[in-house]
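Blinded run. Sample ID left blank on purpose so nobody reads anything into the name before looking at the predicted structure. Input follows.
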Amino acid sequence: MLNELISKFPPELQLMLASANSDMNRTKYLLQQSINWNKFLYLADYHRVYTFVYKTFSRLDKELVPKHILDALRQTCQDNTLSALRITSEMVRIRMLFEDHNIRAVVLKGVPLSWYLYGDIAFRPSGDIDMLVTPDEFEQSTAILENEGYCKFSEYDKHNLLPRQLQIYLKHHEHSSHLKYLNSEKRVLLEIHWKLSKCGNILPFPLEGNVKKIVVAGNLLPVLTDEEWLLYLVLHGAGHKWHRLNWLVDIKMFIQQKNIDWLSLDCLAKEFGVQSFLRQALILVNQVFGIVIPSGIELSHDRTAWRLAYLALRTNILDAGKQVWYSGIYSSLFNSSYDLSMNMGLKKKFNYLLKSLGPTAEDIKLVALPDRLYAVYYIIVPFTFLARRLRRIIAR
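Blinded prediction complete.
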């Protein structure tokens, strides 16, 4: 079933995957097809694999790839390198500030992951800094950031919610594990995490023995151990439906390069209720990139993992990197089905459904009810939902 879905990928997406996987023969074959190069460049940028693509293309005969495509990819890679240098400098500076205040911060993803997996701080594109601190040190960490010119950045700002409206919305809907802070002068976005969480699934906070330090740009940076790092990347990617395929490339690199104790990792994933997410990632890497699944990992009986893999591929095909699930009813069904499958157990599924039926930020803005009357929103929501749909139909 998954092979059939992958065969339906448009040629631009197939070419992107082949070149990102350094598959020279398949890349050459696909370059003989009719390629919409604007769409291809969009996909390579959206999925954050343009550095991999450019590396493969630069090894081919020049006549196989249009010159303006190579030039565009080269420019994007150069811009990414400058961005990575800026982010690295700021990451090291903030990390040292935290250390001066005895804050035990662990760096997640981003530059350290790029260096660890690819030996290059810029090869894995990243647009922000992710740091994990203990809940007890979170308030002190944010105070340091604000003193350094960072301001809290909220995706809800675009809805122009009043403070009380935002408070009500976040209280009932935002099961967050981090806050975003933006330094507009330095053009750096920093996410400060206080737990490793996604879609209600929480990994244990790394103990002192589960943190290691790697040298990046001449500085020691604390990161997770291989098994816990990989498990966090799996949870992160699964929570985002793997809609950016560079996350799967990271999993592929861990499988190919790192000495992971897969049996221990599978047991650890089972202990924290994310075993199906780990297996989903392995299924996707196997199906999309042809990577052999590590021995000892049994996948055939995990129906949830296969269903999640199918839904992830299905939404990628429907969206083609354009995130149309936010506007299309058909694709929204796959999106909702995926989210429901991500919530393991009846309690989590019930909470997800309750949240789905609750008010949006637009509803909160339209009708500002006090907290004690929040339940009334569940009566109002069906009418506001229909009103929004009608407005969109009329606008078309």
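Unblinding after everyone has recorded impressions. The chain is about 55% helix and 10% strand.
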